């Protein structure tokens, strides 16, 4: 079985490639490296101990994508490629819709043309919007307040319509909650360029001493300690979820949605404490106002993934913080 992994050079994709190799699958990566370092390819090869094909290609170029299908026999696509910065999507909506939505349509058209009708898609918990009550269930109504979230809802809809129109298609839509952590080797992880937007990447730099303190976005939420609660999931657990989802997709036609989270909520204060314990570093913080578009609580109802995919997350917050710290330390030569 050969799998095309779009965006396989990125944070979640690279970890998934390691798990694919572990499960005995061959894979090919296509990535334009717009948000990842091409060196990850060598790192993945080093971890899995073998080589694979890599195409430095952009999914917005239909002929390029089609060419990959012509040169290879591909049984399924795991589709990670996309832009993911919420704030940037508000500033550059056209870029986000073109990259995420038009890019995905290209991938789907190339798949159709080459009779590969099996896809796993990276959606996000952001599609639950601001109005649903936790825990979020797959059947809840969807909404989004920014182009990034809208692009995920649009792609979910496109996949659902495609599966309705052609009964040979299988689309497994995975709504990720908050992936953090890193590969145990410390060689793969998340280290965005510039000042990070997300919690753990920001804390990583406070721990390294590059940033003086963490800004906590509000302590007046209706949560046990007032800070925002999220469903953090170790990226390796998440990666393993893709193997289960793919095995499911090979046996089932049609579109199916699954939440991939731990099912547990953890507050910002709890993360800070766990990170301090894991790293032995003091994480200084200041409480500032709420961030626009944030919900107080976000965590998954994970019963469907447990029951249908036979998957659940194994690693706890301490392990997630330990692996994040181990990775960032190595990146910075500490
Ligand atoms: P990432 O940015 O690390 O990986 C995405 C990869 O896609 C990058 O390597 C980037 O270079 C590539 N890419 C972007 N546009 C492309 C294009 N036009 N053609 C080819 N390659 C392109 O992000 P990630 O955290 O690994 O996320 C993977 C997917 O999961 C994304 O679709 C993201 O929206 C989704 N997701 C991520 C999170 C999260 O918190 N990380 C949460 C929910 C959903
Ligand atoms: C953010 C995005 C969401 C996206 C997700 C994964 C926004 C509004 N939401 O979600 O669409 O799917 O990332 O990429 O950007 N926090 C701080 N200080 C910080 C950073 C974060 O206090 O410097 C808090 C947040 O308020 C939140 C928690 O930490 O309560 C987690 O934040 P973050 O890592 O950004 O993830 P999400 O808010 O879940």
Short description:
42% of the residues lie in helices and 17% in strands. The protein has 334 residues and is α/β, with parallel strands linked by helices.
3D structure, described in words:
It is a single chain. This protein is α/β, with parallel strands linked by helices and 334 residues long. The protein has two domains: 2-180 and 232-260, 3-Layer(aba) Sandwich (Rossmann fold); 199-230 and 263-331, UDP-galactose 4-epimerase, domain 1 (Alpha-Beta Complex), CATH 3.90.25.10. It is 42% helix and 17% strand. The chain has eleven helices and 13 strands. It has helices at residues 11-22, 39-48, 62-71, 86-91, 93-113, 147-165, 199-208, 235-251, 268-279, 303-309, 317-331, and strands at 2-6, 26-31, 53-56, 76-79, 118-124, 170-176, 178-180, 214-217, 229-230, 232-234, 254-260, 266-267, 285-288. The chain has a seven-stranded parallel sheet with strand order 3-2-1-4-5-6-11, sandwiched between helices. It starts with a strand and ends with a helix. The mean pLDDT is 97. Bound molecules: nicotinamide-adenine-dinucleotide and uridine-diphosphate-N-acetylglucosamine. Uridine-diphosphate-N-acetylglucosamine is lined by residues 84, 86, 124, 126, 178, 197-199, 202, 214-217, 228, 230, 268, 291, 293-294, 298. The site of uridine-diphosphate-N-acetylglucosamine has 20 residues, from helix 7 and strand 8.
